[in-house]
Specification:
single chain; mainly alpha; globular; 340 residues; 15 helices; disordered N terminus
Length: 340
């Protein structure tokens, strides 16, 4: 049949297709918005949170709230790295996560939560490797060395100090090299290696003398400088039997430790008290040790500080068990202990 220009009527049961403007779209829903790419601004924001945790630690010392906050920061950094805008941003977020985890580890070390500290340090070392961050690696080894000393694992403390010395950052920044040598010195002194301890202290002093004060560095290492090296020198000198040298180093440390490092000032004060006690100056030692409670007034004592107070109490009991000043200090010690 020939086709004509006439419209063919619709067959019953069918309908004409709607005009194009009334037809539904090809997809009955809108595609979900693509997640935004994470860039430098998020890295900067997370790093500022690290600075706040460092300031809190300097004032109050390690505690569980700080540890939890640090782990939350690490978790956020790891979640954001999944949407990093580039491989470089991804590495920087791994670095941030490493430093948050290292902050949690250090808080656990200071709080004497050794098993948690060890787990955090192992995780932080992995993340530092993923972030290609030798500064974070040194930070982790530094804390490893301290934890090993607290556990009485002195050979491991020396190994951790040497690992810190081997990180790439020590070759370009003498301040980090100095910190690594100082930590190794404590490992040597802990096993009675006087010669090795003094050699490492000498290396730490030489490296620190060559360190620039203008070099940009992360906030966590702000504690380290001439004052902290003197505080470490006090520990080393006392360990190797030079209590007079330890006392002199503690006085120099306290003259230079900035006021905002309240926890560090309290620890240096306690090391001074121990050095005085080991010279059999019990009255002065007890008066010095009482200043620890004054410095930390209003805040619980971190576990590490409580442990050192226990060392002082033990040594005092051994050296002067029956003196009146010892009995008075023991009463004060017990009273303060029950409130912290």
């Amino acid at each position: 049949m020939a086709l004509t220009g006439r419209r063919i009527p619709c067959v019953a049961g069918t309908s004409s297709p709607p005009p194009p403007e009334q037809r539904p779209p090809s997809y009955p829903w809108s595609p979900p918005a693509r997640p935004y790419a994470v860039g430098t601004s998020e890295v900067i924001r997370l790093r500022s949170g690290l600075d706040a945790l460092t300031a809190l630690d300097a004032a109050k010392g390690g505690h569980e709230v700080l540890e939890r906050a640090a782990l939350a920061g690490a978790a956020e950094a790891l979640e954001l790295q999944k949407r990093a805008a580039s491989q470089r941003i991804r590495q920087r977020l791994f670095s941030v996560a490493a430093n948050y985890t290292a902050s949690a580890a250090w808080s656990a070390v200071d709080d004497r939560q050794r098993d948690r500290a060890q787990a955090h340090l192992n995780r932080a070392l992995y993340l530092a490797g993923m972030g290609n961050d030798p500064v974070a690696e040194l930070r982790v080894w530094n804390s490893h060395a301290m934890l090993a000393v607290h556990r009485g694992e002195f050979s491991q403390a020396m190994d951790a100090g040497r690992a810190a010395q081997a990180t790439a950052v020590t070759r370009r920044d003498p301040l980090f090299a100095s910190l690594a040598h100082a930590r190794t010195a404590i490992g040597h002194s802990s096993v009675g290696d006087r010669r090795g301890a003094l050699r490492s202290l000498g290396c730490a002093e030489e490296a620190l003398a060559n360190a620039s004060t203008d070099e940009p560095r992360p906030s966590w290492v702000a504690f380290y400088g001439p004052a902290e090296l003197m505080a470490i020198t006090s520990i080393v000198r006392d360990d190797i039997g030079d209590a007079a040298g330890a006392e002199a180093a503690s006085h120099r440390a306290l003259a230079a430790i900035p006021q905002q490092f309240r926890r560090n000032r309290a620890l240096a004060t306690l090391r001074l008290a121990l050095a005085q006690l080991h010279q059999r100056d019990e009255e002065q030692a007890c008066a010095t040790a009482e200043q620890v409670f004054v410095l930390m007034d209003g805040d619980p004592l971190p576990g590490r500080m409580r442990c050192y107070l226990g060392d002082f109490y033990r040594d005092l009991t051994t050296l002067a068990p029956d003196s009146s000043i010892s009995r008075e200090w023991k009463d004060r010690y017990r009273s303060e202990w029950s409130h912290t």
